[in-house]
Design a protein that fits this description.
- This protein has 12 helices and no strands.
- It is mostly helical.
Length: about 270
């Protein structure tokens, strides 16, 4: 894992040949985002023209619509998340042109229930780590701001409190980002071993990422400039996001094929060699 520039160069080469697909995907994502973000406005306009009863604008209808949206969106997001992660790994690994049908078949072999449960468990784990690492520092920061606004502390004490909170928040963010890397291999493991449960997949990913979480975080940190560029100049996300994901995929394959612990792992990766 010393030659990280080799990983990025390989990902950049693959990414440069997929610009049309990336731009198409970006257009679809933007269209869906605009539709969902303006859904409330669209619903509010409909009764004006079609004279729909007031029951559809009540809070109970809004609550029911939210529940239905949640029930529909979670399975869809779980499948899309799985397909996205596996797609990038397959694209790096494939020697020929990758077809979506190949990725979809590999994911569907694992079963709907498995990738749904894996998505939910990972979401809950991320929520748990957020509550443990990020929420306390956020609460403390709000408390300090409240004390400063009420002028109950001196300027020197306020400066110390602000500096201490900034340091604490930075440590918490870095710790959270490192801990999240424990689950970086989950979706790839899922399509390698169909007999493992979501809990076993998470445990295996944590074991394989043992003492590698910080290294992967530092590797991802090298893409901070690309991410910042995508935020400032939004269309650049069409290039920077796939480049980032493909680099992570190359990293994962390199890790799985070279890590000595893979030799006695419960999962075999001979196909990667």
């Amino acid at each position: 894992m010393n030659d990280k520039s080799r990983i990025r160069d390989k990902a950049k080469q693959i990414n440069s040949t997929e610009k049309i697909k990336t731009l198409t995907l970006l257009f679809v994502c933007i269209s869906v985002f605009l539709l969902l973000s303006n859904l409330r406005l669209i619903i509010s306009i409909i009764p004006t023209y079609f004279n729909i009863p007031d029951v559809f604008s009540s809070k109970y209808f809004t609550l029911s619509l939210s529940c239905v949206t949640l029930l529909i969106s979670v399975p869809l997001l779980a499948r899309l998340k799985t397909l996205r992660e596996v797609w990038f790994i397959f694209k790096i690994k494939s020697q020929s042109k990758l077809k979506f049908k190949t990725v979809r078949s590999a994911v569907e072999k694992s079963g709907f229930r498995k990738y749904l449960m894996l998505y939910i468990k990972l979401w809950l784990l991320n929520f748990l780590w957020t509550a443990i690492l990020l929420v306390p520092s956020a609460i403390l920061l709000m408390f300090c701001i409240s004390e400063i606004q009420q002028a109950t502390v001196t300027m020197q004490t306020a400066s110390i409190m602000i500096f201490g909170n900034i340091v604490l928040a930075a440590i918490a963010i870095v710790a959270y980002a490192c801990v999240r890397q424990r689950y970086a291999l989950c979706y790839w493991i899922m399509i390698q071993r169909y007999d493992l449960s979501p809990k076993q997949i998470i445990n295996e990913s944590s074991r394989l990422m043992d003492k590698r979480c910080v290294d992967l975080f530092l590797f991802k940190l090298k893409f901070f400039a690309w991410i910042l560029l995508a935020i400032v100049v939004f269309p650049t996300i069409a290039y920077s996001y796939p480049y980032y994901k493909e680099s992570c995929a190359v990293y994962a394959l390199d890790l799985l094929s070279t890590r000595k612990k893979c030799e006695d792992a419960t999962i075999t990766f001979e196909c990667l060699r």
